[in-house]
Amino acid sequence: MSKIGIKYVLAQKYIFDPKSNSLIDQSDDDSLVRLGSNESRILLLLCEHHNEVVTRDQLHEFVWRDQGFQVDDSSLTQAISTLRKMLKDSTKSPEFVKTVPKRGYQLISSVEPQTLESLQEEATTFEAEPALASITTATATTTVEPTIAPTPEPKKQAFWTCWDTNTRIILVIALLLPIIALVIPNSAPASFRSVTVVNDIPVKTTEGHPPLTQWVDSIKTCVNYYVETYPNESAPVEVIATASQSQQLFLSYIHRSEFTSENSTVRLVADQQDLAQICATGDHKK
Predict the structure, then answer these.
(1) Which is it for strands 31-34 and 22-25: parallel, antiparallel or unpaired?
(2) Rounded to an integer, what distance in angstroms lies between the CA atom of residue 230 and that of residue 25?
(3) At 282, is the pLDDT very low, low, confident or very high (cuts 50, 70, 90)?
(4) What is the number of other CB atoms lying within 10 angstroms of the CB of residue 199?
(5) Closest Cα to residue 8, out of 46, 38, 39, 59?
(6) Which of 30, 120, 153, 260 has fewest C-beta within 10 Å?
(7) Which domains does the chain have, with CATH numbers?
(8) First to last CA, the chain
């Protein structure tokens, strides 16, 4: 990362720290969001070229080629889609990352670079102002009532801290499997086995994965709901299914290369009743 020590305030909502690959959501009790290294480097380049169109080639150069990797264009599309989800950004009405057709991407929110020194100066100013007010009050009156600092409320934990370790691992695997299988050209292809076929769409899982027999009915129902929300040309071409030991199932929907921004992962739990609402999801509905 370039410009080590600089943080960026995005739209007065997020504090982006490229050094630690993190976002602090100031609108959600300063909850911490961890970015992947690819998404973090993309956001850094967009911040450094705020309100400018950054071409796809520039992003490939900065994010992958400079690190010694060569990937195809769908890797960039997937990383942009993931970044938008981290920023809670809409594809149709973006507040942060805007797609410029046939050119690249543009960061359209306000961006305020802040160095470590400027953050320290703000903290010093914040501390000095109450001190000056106390001196003025003491001069004007002979008796000064002591002030009691309010007890800070405990911060609300981020939702993902409530998941157990197995669930987090399974979710990471579910998110990475489509990228590993379809994007990285130089890696050996992952080995999959068929689980079922729904509306001519194969549902697969990795070789060695425990049987998914108890999930087959839920998989068929969920895939049917999902497919109903997409036109024929943008329907997924395959689904990767993985299950955790905590009775949770993850379905990763893989779309054609021109619709990779629609790739998504759905999480189900055993005996779930509201499959129609949960399964019929996609970026176009957000």
Answers:
(1) antiparallel
(2) 32
(3) very low
(4) 12
(5) 46
(6) 153
(7) 7-113 (1.10.10.10), 162-285 (no CATH)
(8) 32
Alpha helices in 64-155 (DSSP H): 73-86, 116-140
- Phi and psi dihedrals of 164, rounded to 5? -75, 170
Cα separation, 54 vs 71, whole angstroms: 18
CA dihedral over 20, 82, 57, 185, signed as positive or negative: positive
Percent of the chain topping pLDDT 70: 71
Indicate whether 143 pLDDT > 70: no
pLDDT tens sequence across 100-137:
999 999 999 999 998 766 655 655 554 545 544 554 44
- Sign, CA dihedral 210-211-214-218, equals positive
**Residue 280 in 3-state DSSP?**
coil
SS3 for 149-217 is CCCCCCCCCCHHHHCCHHHHHHHHHHHHHHHHHHCCCCCCCCCEEEEEEECCEEEEEECCCCCCHHHHH
Question: Where do we find the tokens 């960061």?
Answer: 107
Q: Which of 196, 169, 190 is nearest to 178 (CA)?
A: 190
Find the mean pLDDT for residues 250-256: 88
The rounded distance, in Å, linking the Cα atoms of 64 and 76 is: 9
